[in-house]
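Example with several molecule types.
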Amino acid sequence: MSKVKLYTILYVVLFVLASVQVLVEFAGLTYWTGFGLIMVLSAVKAVLVAGYYQHLVDEPRSITYMMLAALFVAVVLTSASAYSIL
Amino acid sequence: MREVISNHVMHTGGGIRTTFEVFREIFLVFLALGTVVGVVVIGYMVYNVYRYRDGNGTVSGDVDRPRLGELPGGGGSGKKLFVSFGISAFIVVSLIGWTYGMLQDVEDGPPEAEAEEPLHVEVTGYQFGWRFEYPNGYTNTTLRVPVDRAVRLSVTSDDVFHTLGIPSQRVKTDAIPGQTTRTWFIAEEPGEFEVRCYELCGEGHSYMVADGVVMERASFQRWYANTSADLERGGRRARAAGYRAGGAPPRVDGHPHPSMTEDAHADHGHDGLPPQSSVKRWLITTNHKDVGILYIVTSLFFLVFGGTLALLMRVELLTATQTVIAPGAYNEAVTAHGLIMVFFFISPFAFGFANYVVPLQIGAEDLSFPRLNALSYWLYLFSGLLFGASFFLGGTFAGGGTMYAPLNMPAYTPTVGGTTAVLALMLFVASVTVSSVNFLTTMHRMRAEGLKMLNLPLFTWTILLTVWMMLFAFAALLAALIILSADRIVGTVYFQATEGGSLLWAHLFWFFGHPEVYIVFFPALGIMAECFQTFCGRRIVGRKWFIAAMVLVALQSFFVWMHHMFLTSINLPIKTLFMATTIGISLPFDLMVFALIYTMVKGKIRYTTPFLFAFGALVLFIIGGITGVFLGAVVLDYEFRGTYWVVAHFHYVMVGGATALFGGLYYWYPKITGKMYDEFLGRVHWGLYMVGFNLLYFPMFIAWETPRRVFAYTQYRVLGMQVVTWHQLATVGGFVLGAGFLVMFYNLFVSLFRGEEVDGNPWEYASSAEWTVPSPPPFENFPGLPSYADGSLTFRDAGGGLVEGGPESAIGSGAQQADGGTAPGEESAPGDALTGDERTDGGVTATPDAAADAELPEADDHEDHADHASPWPLAVGFSAFVAFLGLSGVRGGGVAYPALTLIGLGLGAISFVSMGLESFHVPEMEVAERWPFEGVENGKLGMWIFLASDVVLFGALIGSYAFIRVAYGWTSWHVVPHDPIPGLINTYLLLTSSFTVVLALVAAERGSTRGLVGSLGITVLFGIGFLYNKAVEWEELFHEGVTVGSGVEASTFFLTTGLHAAHVIIGLLIALFMIARATRGAYLGEEGSAPVEYFGLYWHFVDIVWLFLFPLFYIL
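Resulting C-alpha cells for the full complex:
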C-alpha cells in the first residue's frame, strides 16, 4: 500500500470518528457513558495521528515512551489534584 | 501551660491527645534522635577527613583510584553502603510510621463521646485580621474560648490565602477562599493567647494578629449569654478592627526601597564585560564554553542582587518591630530575593558549569544546537533584566516567592511591575525549555564512542537528570504562569475563582516546585561527587547505586508535591499517600550521602578549596536533610508551616547545595581560565562561608517559632535569650557570609592576571575528559573524535586512526604523577601555550580564541568562526524583552505598552526569519553513543523533546480546567459554546490540514516543489479557515456578553482554546516561511525534507490537542 493511500484512508477514518463523537452526544446515553465513549474516540484518533501522521510506528520506541511519560506526568497532575478535593 | 496539658491527659485517662501534646512528644523524640544522628554522622565525616588526609601515611595500595581519561566506572558493589542505608532507612521509616499513628489522633479531633459538645467557631481570615463567629451567630475579632472544653475551628478566608496559627496551642491550618479547613484544640488554663497569620498575605501580614482569651467556664458562659444582644454590631466592627491600633502598616506608594533601586542599576555594569575590542564576540558567540562563561558571570551578578536583598531583610530583622524598610518594600524584598536566588542565580550558575563541562565530559564538540544554546542564555539574561525592570514599574511582585493565589491577582498586587515580574519568569521558563531540549539531545546522542549511559561522569549524570526534570516540571510552571498572566493581563478569573482557584495555583506551583528542589540540588550533588572523587583520590563508592538512587529521586520527584499542601483542604487519604512518597524520596538521599562519606575512607584527601566546599556542602546538606525529616512528619509539619524552621531547613538544603556549586567554581576555574586561583584566599573564603552560613541559618532553628516573611515579630525567650538576639546573630552571620564573597570575587578576579598558569590537569586523580585537554580547551575541544572504545579515552581522526599526541599518551604519563601536574593534551594543541598571553579581554573570563587560532592561523576572529557565530539569538532575546515589557502594561499601563509589544513582536519575527535563513555550523558526530535515541536525527529528536514538554503544558492546562470543574461540580458545569457544530467544523478543518501536511512531506521527499508548495498552501488555507471560524464563534459569544472574565466556565474556555489558537498561528507563520523558501526549491529530497517533517510533527501535535479540546469544551 502506498503511503498516500494509507494516509488517505486514515483521513477518512478520522473524519468519520469526529462525526461519530458528536452523534454520541445526541444519542441520549447517560452522561458518563457518553463521556467515556467520546474520550475513547478522541484517544483513538490521537493514537492514529501520532502513530501514522507523526509516524511514531516507524521511530524508535524510546520516543513513544518519552511521549507516554509526558502524558503520564500530565495525567498524574490532573487526577491526583482533582482527587485531593473530592 | 505544658504541665497543665499533661495533667489533662492524666485526668482524661490518656483518651484525648491534643495537638500540643502530640507535637511536643514527637518533636522531642525527633530532636533527640536527629541530634544524635547528626553528631554521629558529621563526627564520622570529620574523623575520616582527618584520618585519611594526604600525607598521613594511611594510604593503602588496594584502593579504587581514578585515572585520567579512564572510562568512568568502578565504585565496587557498595555492600557497606547498603548496611548504612538500611539502618538509616529503618530509623526514618519507623519514626514516620510512629508519628502517623499520632496523626490519626490529631485528625480525628476531640472524642464526641465527651459529656460536653465541642464549641464550634467559624473563623474567617481577611486582610488583615480574623473574624470569629460563634454558633449563636455572634461575631467578633477576639477569640474567646472556655477552659477545658474542646474547640473546633472551621477556617476559611474572605480574600487571599492566609494560614491561621495559634502558637500556644500548636494549632495551625490554612485559610483558603472558597474552601473550609478544620482544626481543634483544648485550652487548659485561663489566660491570653495570640491568633496570627502564617502565610504572606499582603502588606499588613506582619500585623495580622488577633487576641485570644481562655476564660473560666462560668465567665465564658456569662459572656456567651450576653453576646446575643450584640449580634447586629459584631460582624461590622470586625473589619474595621482588622488593623491593630498602632500597628497599621503605612500605605506605601509602590516605589522600591532606595537600596533596591541601586541594586537594579548595577545591572548595566554587568552585561558588557570586556573592553570594546572583544565585546562583539560575546554578543554573537554560540560556543558552549563561551555561553557557559556568560551564564556563570551573569548568575554571579544575580547572586549579588539577591544577596543584597537578603541583607536588607536581615537589617530589618535586627529589631522586632518595623524600622528600616516599609512593609510593602519588605514584601518585595522577600519575594524578589526568593525568585532571584532560585531562578536567576542557582540554576543558571549550575548551568554555566553544565554548558562548559558537559560537552567536554561526554566528548562532544559543542551542544547539538549551538544557536539555541545562545538563545537560552539571552532569554535568561533578558528575563533577569526584565525582572530587574519590574522594580521601576510601580514596584515588583510582592506576593511571596511561592506567589500564592489569589494574592497574586491584580486586585491584591496591582502594580505593572508585578505583572512584569510574572512575565520575566515566563521568559525564564522559555529559556529553560530551549535549554532542556538542547541538553537532552546532546547528552543522549553525542556521547563519545564507548561512553555508555552508566559510564557518564557523575556531574553529567546529575545534569542529565536535572534536565529531564526541568523539561516536565517547568512545563507545569509555564502553564501556571500563562494562566496567571492571563488573569493579570487579559482578565480571566482562574485564580480568584472560589471554586478551587487558590488551590489550583498551589497544585500547579508545587507540582513544579518540588522537582525544582532537586533541579536546584542535583548539579550540586554532581559537583560534590566529582570533588570527592578527585580530592579523595578514590572512585565514588557504590557508583552505580549512587546513579540508581538519583534516577529514583528524579522519577519520584513528580509524586511528592502535595506535602507542601498538608494544611490545605486536601483530604486525608491523599495526605497519607503523599506522606509515604515523601518519606520514600528521602531514602535514596541517605544512600548518596553514605556513598560520599565512604569515598573518604582510605582516601588520600587534599584540603583544596573545592574539596572544602564540597565537604562543607555535605555537612550542611546532612543538617538540612535531618531537619527535613521533621517536616516529613505531618504532625510536626502542621506546626512548622510558615515558620523559620522551614526557612532554616530549605536554606540548609538549597544554599547547602550552592555551597558545592562554589566548590565547582574553584574546581573548574583553572580549566576555564588557564590560571590557578589563590589557595589561601580560597580557604579564607571557605572559613568565612562556613562560619557565616551557620551563624546565619542555625539560629533560625532556635528561633523557629518566628513566623516567616514578617518584619515585626512577637518576643519570647528561647535558650536563655530573647528571640530578637538570635535574629541579630543571624544578621551578623549574613554579613560574614557576604564578606566571604568579597574575598572570592577578589581572588578570582586578581588570579585572572596574577594566577599561576596551569596546564591541562592541575588536580591529581581528576579523571573525566575535560582534564585531558588544555586549559582553557581549544575551540573544538578535542584534537580528534573522542572514543572510549579501547576502555580509555583516545582521539581518532576521520579515518579512525589515533590522533598523534592525543591524550592516550597523556593517560599513561598523567595519571600516576605524584604532583598532579600533568598536561596531557598540550602537545596536540599548541594553542595552550598561547592562552595566557593572548587574552585581550579584561573581564572575568578567558577566551579560547587563542587555542582555536592555533588551528587556523592568520584568520581573524570573525571569519574564523563565521559559521559558529550568530547575532540572532541576542536579537530574539532582546525582542522578547521588549515584547514582554510591553505586555506587562497592556492593562492599565498607557498606550506606550501595547506599542512596545508590537515592536517587540516585529523585531522578534525579523530575528527569527534571519536566524532561519542564516547558514550555520551544526555539530554532528560520525561515531557516537546514542542510546536510547539511535536512528532519529538530532533535529527530529529535539522537536519530539519539545513536544513532550508541550504535552505537559497542555496537560496542565487541561488539568487546570478539570480541577476547577471538579471543584465547581463536574456535571453542574455548562460548556460555553451553545452548539458543538462550529467546533466539529474546526475539527474537520484541522484534520484536513494534518492530511495536507503529510502530503507536503510526501511531495518534498519525491522532489516535487509544486506538490510541496501546493500542499503547504492548502494547509495554510485550512489553518486560516480554522481561525476565522473561531473568530466568528468568539465574536458571537462576546456579543452575547460572554467574555473571558464572565466566570470560570468562560475563562477556561477562552484561555485553553485561545492558547491552542496561538499554536495554530505560530504554525501558520512557520508554514508561510517554509512556503516562501520552498518556492525557491528548498526542502527537496530525503534529507532536505527534514524541516517539513519537523513542522509536520508540530502541526499534528496541535491537531491532537484539538482532538481533546473539542469534546471537553464543546460537547461534554
